[in-house]
Design goal:
By secondary structure, the protein is α+β, with helices and mostly antiparallel strands. It folds into three domains: about 70 residues, Dna Ligase, domain 1 (2-Layer Sandwich), CATH 3.30.1490; about 120 residues, ATP-grasp fold, B domain (D-amino Acid Aminotransferase, Chain A, domain 1); about 150 residues, Succinyl-CoA synthetase domains (Rossmann fold, 3-Layer(aba) Sandwich), CATH 3.40.50.261. The chain is about 35% helix and about 25% strand. It has twelve helices and 18 strands. Strands 7, 8, 9, 10, 11 and 12 form a six-stranded antiparallel sheet that branches. The longest helix is centred in the C-terminal third of the chain and has 14 residues. The protein starts with a helix and ends with a helix.
Length: about 375
């Protein structure tokens, strides 16, 4: 769950990280009033969950309240990488002496958090890392130890940051831990001409699985991206793990590992996956029906592949879910089903009894993938 920039800044502020005064508005006239309260001259920033706002014209300096209203009118409604700008943040400008980059991110493979920092902030950090990797420091952080004052000083020194940024690093770590975040990032963290250290921009990604204990983000409407894919939104409303892709074979599986393998096998058979949909390890018939309903709502899908290995999830429950979905959804595309494991024979019998003309069964994953790809490409 990504926060909007203005939300990330408010989180930083609550942890004692200094940010310029700002206001968020959704109408040009409100931008004029906000600029007046902020001192007249402001930076107007599009509030969308994507990068590249500056290059797209979504970040502009306004010299006075009248200019702020005009600028807000120009930015509101813009499309930035598929995201419509519905709100802008007006922030007081600062006189910058130096810009830095700092972040903490979860490194799942290594089982640690990673501090990433650079004395070259304000730029695309991926570009800096690719062209001048020596300019970006990567410092592992033991989750059990955390970022002590000593560790914060170590990170700052490794990246060539001034010593006074260590306090911000320690506070950012507290944001990460206490907000159940997977990523916290400031780009740029700046030192002003009068020596103040300020976070001018911020990004925070909160673990969706921890939302139940994060009262601040309990209301999903506060953080929902209204430009998210409608199928992803529909799946989320049903509690499904779904990601829209750009192919033509809809894929449902139980378990992320199996689904990922299925994506690879389908691609190896000459077709492109249309989605990633994991119904989980203990999926009920209703979950299976909900998943199939989402997949069949995608107009790009030309064939659907259900690949389930029964363990906690019994194959007969999966089959019953498919039958339930077929009774409520008009199936117009072929459906290939591969069931194996717990109660597989019983599940296959349930599908055989239903005898839907567009439903086929396969005994192996390779065979199911090959058939789904063939049907999608015909």
């Amino acid at each position: 769950m990504d926060l909007y920039e203005h939300q990330a800044r408010e989180v930083f502020k609550s942890y004692g990280i200094a940010v310029p005064d700002a206001a968020v508005v959704d109408h040009p006239r409100e931008a004029r009033r906000a600029a007046e309260l902020l001192g007249g001259r402001v930076v107007v920033k599009a509030q969308v969950k994507t990068g590249g706002r500056g290059k797209a014209g979504g970040v502009k300096l306004a010299a006075d309240p009248a200019a702020a209203e005009i600028t807000a009118r120009q930015i509101l409604g813009m499309d930035i990488k598929g995201h419509t700008v519905r709100r802008v943040m007006l922030a007081q400008p600062v006189d910058i002496q130096d810009e830095f980059y700092v972040s903490f991110v979860l490194d799942r493979a290594a089982g640690v958090f990673l501090a990433i920092a650079s004395a070259e902030g304000g730029m695309d950090i991926e570009e800096v890392a690719a062209t001048r990797p020596e300019a970006v420091a990567h410092i592992p952080v033991d989750p059990a130890e955390g970022v002590t004052d000593t560790k914060a000083a170590e990170i700052a020194a490794a990246a060539g940051l001034p010593a006074e940024t260590a306090d911000v690093l320690a506070r950012l770590w507290q944001v990460l831990v206490r907000e159940d975040a997977l990523l916290v990032e400031v780009n740029p963290l700046v030192r002003t001409t009068d020596g103040a250290i300020l976070a001018l921009d911020g990004k925070v990604t909160v673990d969706d699985n921890a939302r139940f204990r994060q009262a601040r983000w309990g209301d999903a409407s506060e953080v929902r991206d209204t430009d998210a894919d409608p199928l992803e939104a529909a799946a989320a409303a049903k509690g499904l793990t779904y990601v829209k892709l750009d192919g033509e074979v809809g894929i449902i599986g139980n378990g992320a590992g199996l689904v990922m393998s299925t994506l690879d096998v389908v691609a190896g058979r000459g077709a492109r996956p249309a989605n990633f949909l994991d119904i989980g390890g203990g999926a009920s018939a209703q979950v299976m029906a909900d998943g199939l309903d989402v997949i069949l709502s995608d107009r790009d899908v030309k064939a659907v592949l259900v690949n389930v290995f029964g363990g906690i999830t019994a194959c007969d429950a999966v089959a019953e879910g498919i039958v339930r979905a077929l009774d409520s959804v008009h199936l117009t595309q072929p459906l290939v089903v591969r069931l194996d494991g717990n109660n597989a024979a019983r599940g296959r019998a349930i599908l055989d009894a239903r005898a839907h003309p567009l439903v086929e069964q396969a005994t192996t994953m390779d065979g199911a993938a090959a058939r789904a790809a063939q049907l999608a490409n015909r």
